[in-house]
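F.,

This is the one I mentioned.
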């Protein structure tokens, strides 16, 4: 039917089935727990920064829907080897992408499979969860919830 939609589904299903960097990271220097109460997605992201501030190791564990798990899996692949600054820039770009407001002139490569997710507002938080947890880990915030951020509060209308 629609090639792009098929690609999107295949990539997400594949990462959901065989997530990358799934498990514990004993050498972790930073950790955060991310929770999306709307969907029930709940992950722990652990990372190891080396002396240069690069992400030397990263892993996640927990459970959630296919979108949240695939996004977490792809997040770990995308930030491994990056400096903290580059990883945080990617976080910000990814969050704009899933809101349907990608920064012009940037390509996020494989992560572009999430570029249509804004059409499903309930899923935006699923896709962004692991990235919020990553930001939390860098900031040494122990627990991150998709429902306690300022932006989530201001965007939230009356419960339907
Ligand atoms: Zn979800």
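My design for it:
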């Amino acid at each position: 039917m629609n090639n792009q939609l098929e690609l999107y589904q295949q990539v997400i299903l594949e990462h959901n089935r065989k997530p990358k960097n799934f498990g514990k990271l004993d050498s972790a220097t930073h950790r955060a727990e991310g929770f999306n109460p709307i969907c029930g997605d709940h992950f722990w992201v652990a990372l190891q920064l080396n002396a240069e501030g690069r992400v030397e190791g990263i892993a996640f564990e927990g459970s959630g829907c296919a979108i949240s798990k695939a996004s977490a899996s792809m997040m770990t692949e995308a930030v491994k080897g990056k400096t903290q600054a580059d990883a945080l820039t990617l976080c910000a770009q990814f969050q704009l992408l899933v809101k349907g407001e990608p920064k012009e002139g940037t390509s996020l490569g494989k992560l572009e499979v999430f570029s249509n997710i804004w059409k499903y507002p309930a899923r935006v938080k699923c896709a962004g969860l692991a990235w919020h947890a990553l930001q939390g880990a860098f900031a040494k915030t122990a627990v991150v919830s998709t429902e306690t951020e300022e932006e989530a509060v201001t965007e939230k209308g009356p419960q339907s």
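The longest strand covers residues 41-49.

Talk soon.
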